[in-house]
Amino acid sequence: MAARWKEWLTGWAFVFPAVALFAVMGVYTIGSGLALSFASWNGFTPEWIWVGLENYADLLWADPSLAPGVRRAAWNTLQVCVAVPLLTVLISLPLAVTLNSVRRLRGLLRSVYFLPYVTTGIATYYAWRYLLEPEGSINLMLRSAGLGSLAQPQGWLANPSTALWTLILILVWSAVPTATLLYLTGLQAIDPSMVEAARIDGAAPRQVLRRIIVPLLTPMTAGIVLLGVRDSLHGFQIFLIMTNGGPGGHTNVLALETYELAFFKGLAPTLGLSSALGWLLFVGAVLLTLANARLLRRVR
Amino acid sequence: MTAARIARTAAYVALSIYAALSLYPFLWMVSGAFKTREEILDGGHLIPREPTFDTIVTTWNQLAFVDYFRNSLVVTGLTVLGVLVVYSLASYAFAVLRFPGAKTLYWLFVALLFVPGITVLLPVVILENRLGLLGTHMGLVLPFVNGTAPLTVLLLTAAFRGIPRELREAARADGASEARIFLRVYLPLTRPAHITIAVLTAVPTWNEYVLSRVSLNDEALYTLPLGLESLISGTVVRYNEVLAASLIMVLPVIALFAFLQRYFVNGLVGAVKG
């Protein structure tokens, strides 16, 4: 009995710091954030005004000055959530398979491919901004390659029709490193004798890839897609830093809208709206994850 | 040329193209940092005609970059330390110890993966304002540590579970305390996983902009991302200085990664297998 109590107490002692931190930073913030989503507040008045589900209704359909903007941001967010994980897999899977098939320079190339993850953030976003300017290196390169018609004279981020996809490609560029590394570890776990057996049975390399390697990597793909969708839904640093939602809301996403409503509306009572939008984002994340898990199970 | 040789050449061509793409903005960062104000406006050539150290020196001197650098080091260092101590202990308990509530707590921490950072950002700011933490470095470190909980607990618990239980039984038979088993047996064996977590925490913390922007007001406490931002907020953007500052900011992270790379990759392999 005493031994059992001792083990329990040890366990509780080990988790105590994590639970204490969560009690202060997590429980309170999640609780008060959820409560605030049912209230109207501008951050300065002493009292919250309870409005029930009004914030959610305003965001989704009721307020004509809000709902259309939210719907557009939702559409942009959806494009990001689908395109970024999909393109990441389409690039990093062949990249990892190719890298795994060569011997020389493998270590060096792996480090080079990982560089975008290590450097991603405000510094690299500014470098990309410089490259995407009207007279930036991307346009100059296209012109000197005789593809001047593809160059964007206003700059890639100022043109409403290219801005969102430019950002999507940069997000893919920053997501490929971890995905490639995960695929590489997955590839190294594959039993070489299995591939060898298939080859002896007369399977072409392409068949080996499609029938053996890709299916064995499915759990890895599932993880990459799940984390990719989550990051696309939650992350907005790149949108804030590179375009701040512009031009004209064409790169606005839901998380950025939540941020604007929380911190940049002055004395207007938008804090409840911001909280409500944040929780809609949470619901979206859960739904997308469930849909994804289902889809991937069917593929398998 | 044989078919195998052609295939290998094609593979290296494809691999080189993606390597160039990975390096692309970084190369321009280096190039811009060594150009003068006149040269950066004069066309898009990668290799500077008259490379100069002046840009880096001016940039370093004109803003309080030494301060920003130190602030970033303090915030990132404390965050990484906090994450390693707090979640290593908790993950060890989840993986090895048996006590009521272990499973519920574990799943609670993992489920937090779905709560977007932006959803709790505003409540964090309100709470810290009440506690008098807003605008301090601690006010950044605490939510950063808490925010890494889901992935860290997931990876470290998997790593601890990978250690054979017999080792613990043997150490206990020798009379070792739980703390001793944790420190002397489990921690050394899970070092790659801990280094992986350190890198996965340090990189985003070093680059964090959103919470820092809304909470830090005192310029003396600014971290590098905010210092960098103040370079670009003027009307005329001097890209050579912005790129020099960017280079100053990314070099330490690259150095850290180069140094820890071996462990990092191993840790990731262990975590994925676990």
Descriptive overview:
The complex is a heterodimer of chains A (300) and B (274). With 300 residues, chain A is mostly helical. In chain A, strand 1 and strand 2 form a beta hairpin. In chain A, strands 1-2 form a two-stranded antiparallel sheet. The mean pLDDT of chain B is 88. In chain B, helix 11 runs antiparallel to helix 14. Chain B has 274 residues and is mainly α. At the A-B interface, helix 1, helix 3, helix 4, helix 5 and helix 6 of A face helix 1, helix 4, helix 5, helix 6 and helix 7 of B.
Class inferred from helices and paired strands of chain B: mainly alpha
The class by helix and strand makeup of chain A works out as mainly alpha
What's the CATH H-level homologous superfamily of chain A?
Answer: MetI-like
Number of helical elements of chain A: 13
Largest interface: A-B, 87 and 89 residues
- Helix-strand pattern of chain A, N to C? HEEHHHHHHHHHHHH
**CATH class type of chain B:** Mainly Alpha
User: How many DSSP-defined strands of chain B?
Assistant: 0
Radius of gyration of chain A: 24 Å
